[in-house]
Amino acid sequence: MDPTREAERLLRRFARETNMTVAGRPMEVHGDGPVADALIQMLAAMGARAASSSPADAALTVDFDVATGAITLGGAPLRERGDAAGRIDFARDHMRVSTGLAAELRGAGTVRGLRIGVAMTLEPKTANLALLLADAGAEVAVYAHPDETDPAVAAALRERGVPCDADATLEPRDERAAALAFLRRGFDVLIDDGSHLTRLAHEEGLVDGWLGATEETTSGLTPLRAMQRDGALATPVVAVNDAGTKTGFDNRYGTGQSCVLAIADLLDAADVSVRDQHALVIGYGPVGVGVAAHLRALGARVAVAEIDPLRALLAAHDGYEVGAADALAEGALVVSATGVAATVTAHQIRAARAVAVAGGVPGEIDLEHAVLGDALEPIAEHVEQLADARTIVLDRGGCINVTAAEGNPIEIMDLSFATQLAAVRELVETRPAVGVHALSEAAVDHVAATAARTRGIQLAARSVRSSGAPDHWRSPRYRISTEQETA
After folding, report:
1. Please, are residues 422 and 447 in contact by the beta-carbon 8 Å criterion?
2. Would you give the end-to-end CA distance of the chain in angstroms?
3. What number of other Cβ atoms are within 10 A of residue 17's Cβ?
4. What angle do CA 118, 121, 127 make, to 5 degrees?
5. pLDDT tens for residues 274-287?
6. Separation CA 440–CA 426 (nearest Å)
7. Helical packing angle, 34-45 and 3-18, nearest 10°
8. Are 290 and 248 in contact (CB under 8 A)?
9. Which among 433, 409, 450, 454 has a CA at the least distance from the CA of 105?
């Protein structure tokens, strides 16, 4: 038995069966020996903390019994989430921040009667965002790209009365028509992911009457800011992605954990371990930071390729080898974390041990040219291998945590969707001008404070002296003494 591999499998089982976060969660390991030691080390590297005796921790604590393989959550065995309805309800039980923000919207009547479109990857957390908005009084409809649709969740959402224009069986030639049909429902606010629907609405002149849109991702904000520079943007957009309660958690902890554990699950099916694997992360933005950290936590030897000098310096100071992708891709597990098409070249694919995409946009790996003169052979679901080059290709370069797993963990998306709800409130209440706008510091602070309170995190009290006097801005180095003042 390989103790580290067994520890990793226990960790991955917890994440797979719950879709919950490791980072920040109280966790306890019961038992002695090399498996227990490896699991303790792995959990600490991924940001888990020791449980305290507080009631808040008691409800959140995960216990691993190494001897039996049993895992408990809040003192009870992990329960089967069951069908799509059960998965939606399980996620709702752990989305307390979003639930609190939605209750405020309902109490104030902020979105009552407003038509709100939700265009995002459709899985249980997104379903809850739509249901919370509907509970708050909005008229909600949901759209998702076929590759980003869980059909069982779509059906469950329809059964609960939310119109859902998401069809996993849709042919590519029909995707544009389906997206336009969704937009022609007519919305006051659009919650978007990747700005695909926002941009399509501009192409077709369908933004008239919008109060605005919110945008979830970096890759979605980049074209919207280009549209603003070119004078093509015709609606206000709140940059949810840039809020600390979104990007500080979603990319680093959410995408990092969910993508790396999905990669490990798929490689396991090919009898390949992440541990001791040479890994190359291309791109060291927030997603790359999270992917690199989680690969390292599982025992990979991680290197980074980055075109931005500041990010390259950060990677080097985080202890990673930094260099050119062509040189570092040889025999490596290559993970693209850029959100830019054609990041991983055909040459790099064929030189690699395995390739995958974290986050991702269409065509982020140049698989089309990599397979020329070669062929993809199936190994397992979502796992193929180039027959001649022997490179393992995971999910054909799809966004690995969405297309081959269940998306980011529940508590991470709870923070992101609470931030979305705060952004919707700000759009409706402030009616900003056309342009891309940051979510206000007050709104971000409110989401953070709500999260800290609901998760039982105690904040330090500011001391009387540090609270500041009227002249607190004056340098104490040159302050006039009492004797000088009275002289």
Report:
1. yes
2. 82
3. 14
4. 60
5. 998 999 999 999 99
6. 8
7. 50
8. no
9. 450
Which tokens go with 253? 């902890």
The single-letter code of the amino acid at 309 is: P
Q: By the 8 A CB rule, do 369 and 342 touch?
A: no
d(CA 331, CA 351): 6
CB 353 within 8 A of CB 277: yes
Interaxial angle between packed helices 286-297 and 34-45, expressed in degrees from 0 to 180 and rounded to the nearest 10: 170
- 291-347: per-residue pLDDT in tens? 999 999 999 999 999 999 999 999 999 999 999 999 999 999 999 999 889 999 999
Q: How many CA atoms lie within 13 A of 137 on its CB side?
A: 13
Mark out the alpha helices in 386-476 (DSSP H runs).
400-403, 410-430, 441-454
Per-residue pLDDT, 54: 82
How many whole angstroms separate alpha carbon 294 and alpha carbon 297?
Answer: 5
Q: What is the pLDDT of residues 421-453, one digit of tens each?
A: 999 999 999 999 999 999 999 999 999 999 999
**400: its two tokens:** 């690995």
> Are 325 and 305 within 8 A, CB to CB?
yes
Question: What CA–CA distances, in Å, run from 21 to 253, 262, 408?
Answer: 8, 14, 8
CA separation for the pair 428, 112 (Å, rounded): 11
CA-CA distance, 183 to 44, in Å (whole number)? 45
Both tokens of 157, joined, read 């959402």
- Residue of 178, 211, 173 whose CA lies nearest to 196: 178
Place of tokens 């695909």: 196
What's the CA gap between 19 and 286, in Å, rounded? 21
Q: Specify whether the CB–CB gap between 358 and 255 falls below 8 A.
A: yes
The residue to which tokens 């006051």 are assigned: 188
DSSP 8-state secondary structure symbol assigned to residue 321: E
Query: How far is CA 406 from its chain centroid?
Result: 11
CA 339 to CA 34: how far, in whole Å? 39
Sheet architecture: strand order including 189-192? 164-166, 139-144, 115-119, 189-192, 212-215, 236-239, 435-437
How far apart CA 81 and CA 62 sit, in angstroms, is: 16
Q: How far, in Å, CA of 140 to CA of 119, rounded?
A: 11
Q: What's the rounded Cα separation, in Å, for the pair 368 and 122?
A: 27
Element (H, E) at 163: none
Q: In this structure, are strands 139-144 and 70-73 parallel, antiparallel, or unpaired?
A: unpaired
